[in-house]
Amino acid sequence: MDVLTALLLLVHLIPVSTAKNGVSSKSRKRIMPDPVTEPPVTDPVYEALLYCNIPSVAERSMEGHAPHHFKLVSVHVFIRHGDRYPLYVIPKTKRPEIDCTLVANRKPYHPKLEAFVSHMSKGSGASFESPLNSLPLYPNHPLCEMGELTQTGVVQHLQNGQLLRDIYLKKHKLLPNDWSADQLYLETTGKSRTLQSGLALLYGFLPDFDWKKIYFRHQPSALFCSGTCYCPVRNQYLEKEQRRQYLLRLKNSQLEKTYGEMAKIVDVPTKQLRAANPIDSMLCHLCHNVSFPCTRNGCVDMEHFKVIKTHQIEDERERREKKLYLGYSLLGAHPILNQTIGRMQRATEGRKEELFALYSAHDVTLSPVLSALGLSEARFPRFAARLIFELWQDREKPNEHSVRILYNGVDVTFHTSFCQDHHKRSPKPMCPLENLVRFVKRDMFVALGGSSTNYYDACHREGF
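-> structure tokens emitted (464 positions)
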């Protein structure tokens, strides 16, 4: 057994002990680091394997948990696409050989995989918003193309969809059996990996769905900001954040030495190697248990990987402390959060449209939303990460509505900045919807400082 296989087994076979609040310690530590269960020193390989999110035993989750007198009204799901082939190649090395065709009896396996492929092959006439209608509905290349979803990525989202089906449809009857097209809201960026991830989750959620009822909208921006993407102050925060990243990298002599060693192995200038973002390709090797590349000058190895991954973890830590990314996130996440509360408010009025919303997106979509919500301790979005907003009605007080926020199955509602104090003052098990509405309509701008009270003014603030 090689080292990678042993590490994979270690991460996925940790005994699951249930904590007092019903969340397993395994699932909890995947989201919010727990000093009791985490490795005593940050372990870059452990973190990387959590990021891979290799499908294994079905995970326990806290979605759909509520006292019996609460009724589920609507659900809003934000996902990162599943496992993909790298977007970059390490110069002068052989690309990792990953097969992106879907084979039912190959690992990782899912009982619905064959039926998924069959159903997707019938959807070629489906009507999606342009340019989505020109994208393939499932991955299908014997050697993966750059950025292409893998079988692992499809299985990850079939699992997500099935888990949400068991909870939201079978248990809570969120949609009627004869659900209609207007009860779903589906939106994705124009990448095949996000469209295919959305379809895989949807197939797990609504097996053998009627293609006539499915319509994916196209979102040109990874921030899902639709017609409100122009925001100069957000871009200024981003430039300052990128400057912070650059300065942190300059201070890391071990990182520089590692890039230098790797550049000699592949015989390119260090600058060119760094520009090729080698960690992206190395993560693919790790997640798929493929050896790192070698040349006649030597091999890229696990020590190189650990140095680069450790720097990434340090960068995330400093990012939280310096708060520049928070400014970017508050403005970057506002449009999509504003859309979501608008949808929730319509549902509280008894409207039956868009009861289930799905945004199929990227790490650069979920990460700002997590940061804006105040979930600064949450781990960087892994492959097939899911962030869910649930809207509930109190049957005993029908005018009262509450929200729950869940990240990869863990209830993080009371970790959010808008609800972290609520349960200290109130016995209610959920967060009032008005807390989230007030946060999006007012407190997000207060957190930015200055006198802005709306998105436009905050984006165009002078003298930032």
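Strands lie at 70-80, 184-189, 216-219, 294-295, 298-299, 356-361, 386-394, 397-407, 410-411, 431-432.
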